Amino acid sequence: MQTYHNTVSGKQTEAADHQEIFNPATGDSLGLAPLNNEHDVNVAVEAARMAQDAWARVSDQERREIVANVAQVLEENSEYLAGLVTQEQGKPLSGPGSRFEMQACVGWTKVPSSLELLPETVYEDDTRKDVLYRYPLGVVAAIAPWNWPLMIAIWQIIPAIRMGNTVVLKPSEYTPIATLEMVRLINQVLPPGVLNTVSGDGRIGAVLTSHPDINKIMFTGSESTGRRIIEASSQNLAPITLELGGNDAAIIMPGTEAAAISEGLFWGAFLNAGQTCACIKRLYVHENDYDSVVTALSDVASQVPIGDGMVESNLIGPLQNAMQYNKVKELVADARANGCDVMEFGDIPSTGYFLPLTLVGNARDGQKLVDEEQFGPALPIIRYSSLDDAIASANRLSAALGASVWANSLEQAETIASKLEAGTVWVNQHGAIHPMVPFGGNKASGYGVEFGMEGLKGVTQSRVISIKK
Questions:
Q1: Measured at the alpha carbon of residue 41, what is the angle toward residues 173 and 14, in degrees to the nearest 5?
Q2: Mean pLDDT over all residues of the chain?
Q3: How do residues 377-411 score in pLDDT, each as one tens digit?
Q4: What's the chain look like in SS3?
Q5: Tens digit of each residue's pLDDT (9 = 90 or more) over 85-109
Q6: Which of 241, 245, 242 is nearest to 274 (CA)?
Q7: How confident is the model at residue 466 (pLDDT cuts 50, 70, 90)?
Q8: pLDDT of 353
Q9: Which residues contact 53 (CB under 8 A, 6 or more apart)?
Q10: Is residue 257 annotated as part of the catalytic site, yes or no?
């Protein structure tokens, strides 16, 4: 059985304990991943701290070139890493799956390597000149999730190292292998200590985020864990970028042609079997259009193959873990018990954490499936009679990562979009992120943004030099 390792100071390290990782589609063992302790965290943070000053003194142009080399490593190893993601996380190789994830890893590495965050003269007159500079914060603690384990890790790693920080990354305990292998490969072109890993569950995450030598925390995950990280950060006063998931609402405006938007709606909701923070998780449909929308979505869902992602023809994989599998099953069962119309599509394998693609008609605000983020392949469809009611329903929950409006008229859609409380509101698309466009949540979906110039600013500290003329 293969044993995988953390990388600290550019070298593979041994761990005193390990956990076995299994394929969620087949149950097959994938190997052993390290389980670290507090001492291991201290060693990794110290390695990052010792490397940070020299890395910050590397010229900006040279750091950009090194990050571009990271992109090349990712491209060269894309198929290998995609296979690991599919076996460990479950998403298929094909379609918007693990190869798609690797393309995103490359793109979100190339773009920061191309950007310059130049000094900015913020004020000048005859008597003074004030220039804003950006400096690295120091050591960044990055906590990555299990749903897009490599892509979201890259979102955290690349801006941080691009701007002269060093990183200690903890992958999810559910999906550590692909991430550890990606970091091992990236370290071929990075100076030792710039990117390090530790592995384990939330206890290790707590040790890392509360460590006195951590200068910035980046976390993507649940609201409950995010709140614990905020508390842990009181030990080091590290600024935090938090992305805490969402319960994204999509509103279809009256009279919108259902067949024209059905594929966009489907993948907006069922990307990665619904295991995406910015998936559609509540669909609001005008009562006059309800039947046509359900029919159009049913037509798409009935044609999408479900199964082991290593089979090229499959486009939807399993839930990643038993906890999530059982949660989604319970939410659908609750909806059925409360009078919803549960429509299931797809032939699912008899082994693995597979669930059918599920449309839940006649859902209502206040039901568990509507009010709780399901994070799985079950979409509640809610009738509305007035747009004001739909907007109020969409805004009533504390989760506010993304939302979308679907309409024939872009002008009308933009008017409705401006009334939705979310970090990003898409029009006639959903989840369409871009490496140059800031992305982050409102309300209980977190704070701080990633991507583009704003993302680079988020991993720096500002310093003003004020000169008297």
A1: 75
A2: 97
A3: 999 999 999 999 999 999 999 999 999 999 999 99
A4: CCECCEEECCEEECCCEEEEEECCCCCCEEEEEEECCHHHHHHHHHHHHHHHHHHHHCCHHHHHHHHHHHHHHHHHCHHHHHHHHHHHHCCCCCCCCHHHHHHHHHHHHHHHHHCCCCCEEEEECCCEEEEEEEEECCEEEEECCCCCHHHHHHHHHHHHHHCCCEEEEECCCCCHHHHHHHHHHHCCCCCCCCEEECCCCHHHHHHHHCCCCCCEEEEECCHHHHHHHHHHHHHCCCCEEEECCCCEEEEECCCCCHHHHHHHHHHHHHHHHHCCCCCEEEEEEECCCHHHHHHHHHHHHCCCCECCCCCCCCCECCCCCHHHHHHHHHHHHHHHHCCCEEEEECCCCCCCCCCCEEEEECCCCCCHHHHCCCCCCEEEEEEECCHHHHHHHHHCCCEECEEEEECCCHHHHHHHHCCCCCCEEEECCCCCCCCCCCECCEECCEECCECHHHHHHCCEEEEEEEEEC
A5: 999 999 999 999 999 999 999 999 9
A6: 245
A7: very high
A8: 98
A9: none
A10: no
pTM of the model: 0.96
Is 277 one of the catalytic residues?
yes
Residue 41 has pLDDT above 90, yes or no: yes
On the question of pLDDT at 126 being above 90, the answer is yes
Separation between Cα atoms, residue 289 and residue 317, nearest integer Å: 30
> What is the token pair recorded at 260?
């024209």
Query: Which among 88, 181, 223, 243 is annotated as catalytic?
Result: 243
C-alpha to C-alpha distance for 79 and 85, rounded to whole angstroms: 10
Q: In angstroms, how far is CA 422 from the centroid of its own chain? A: 16
> Does residue 416 contact residue 384 with C-beta atoms inside 8 Å?
no
The pLDDT value given to residue 245: 87
Mean pLDDT of 452-468: 98
Q: How are beta strands 128-136 and 460-468 bridged, if at all? A: antiparallel
Choose, from 88, 105, 173, 277, the residue flagged as catalytic: 277
Contact (CB, 8 A) for 196 and 153: no
pLDDT tier for residue 1 given thresholds of 50, 70 and 90:
confident
